[in-house]
Amino acid sequence: MNSAIVERDEPVVSSPRAWTTLAGSALGTLVEVRVHAGPDDAGALAELFSPLLTLAPTTAPPGRAVLGLTVDRRADGWGLVDEAVTDLHVTVDDVAEAALAVINSRIVEAAQRHWVVLHAAGVVVDGRTVLLVAPSGSGKSTLAAGLVGAGADYLGDEAAAISPDDLSLHAYRKPLALKAGSLTAVRRAAATGARPDRRLLDPSRMGVRVPETAAPPSLLVLPGFRTGATGTATVVPPAEAVLAIAQSTFGFAEHGERDLAVLARLVRQAPVVALSYRDLEWAVRAVQDLAGSTVEVA
User: What is the pTM of this model?
Assistant: First the structure.
């Protein structure tokens, strides 16, 4: 990892440090983060990692993959230790984001052995599983935040694992990651005790469910935030949809034959809609309307 030091002030260590373990499980991998910090700092970190990790200890079953990191609160910042390499960060938000980047990469890589893993956000709207499939920078996390703010259940904003057997969805319930310009999408958070200035947010604090599994997708949306877009929703033909989704499938080059067969089944079962928009509230309403209506597969 590369050192990433941002010029922002954060109070120095003011209370005795102790060792705490944050642990959780995601997509078949057990995650453990050892934290060396005072109680206030450890609590702040636990809040940022929720719902993926909690303070409850977790024991790995035999043969279970384990991902371990260490976070050390030091006088000069936060140290993130991964395989004996220490990366220094200034704020608790910075070190949490850096740790999650490592966790995301390792979990997604391991999950590809068992599932078709899409680069997608997932929500449940009125009982229907909806995937927002797109590469980074397309606005899927912001759109997911808007849908969660409108009451949708949250299934993750980074990866969605599809079972090759029955197309059921296994959620990666990481914290919702928001850029500074996207924080208005979580305006409901202020009424539920969550800090709307945090860049990582536990959606359960917004009063929605965060399930581990969901029914096979009923709708796949290819979101595209574009300045100047008028707001359009276009049903994508299956052959074109498979190609588009394959570009947002982790490890497709390695597992292409398996993944292609699963994607072909998926787009025959669920319509795929390309959504071009500039207004978040319009996009939220559009996804809600699509989820609540019968969209024919092209």
Answer: 0.86
